[in-house]
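Let us practice reading a record.
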Amino acid sequence: MNLTPAPWKPRTVAGVIDVGIVFGYVVVLGMVIAVIFPMLTGPTSILIGSIMAILLIEVPIGIWWWRQESTKGDTLGKRFAGVFVVNAATKKPATSAECAIRVIAKLLPWVIVHIMILMSTDPVMGHQWWPLPCLFLSAAIGAASLGSAYVRSDHRAWHDLIAGTQVVSN
């Protein structure tokens, strides 16, 4: 089997499909959280809101992505686009641990973004300015990671580099 780095078009199609599925989940769950979060008051409201966001948004998404990639080597979007995840050095299917590291590295900037959004709008603390630079920095890190897949010759994003994985096609 001749595996080559996945070109940017199929990888983009895969990403759009996967993010579209996640977006639907986040919109529905976001409506629930938007109703619950204003009910949280007191000095622990940010902590509780952050924990809720992580446990209800990032953790299920991470588990879903990890489970697909560690068992099938792809996600629904990757399967549709004809690309899959392998160990970059051996070109064998990525291990469960590599997939877990990949997903954590991919989602970490977005976890930070969610926490910063909550912190910048906390009614108890008052509107704070300092989370906003952190928000933009985290978003920039996430965007740069994804962008690296487009400019590197091996098409590896930062989360691929951290996990030792690569998205390939036949």
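A brief commentary: The two ends are 7 Å apart (CA to CA).
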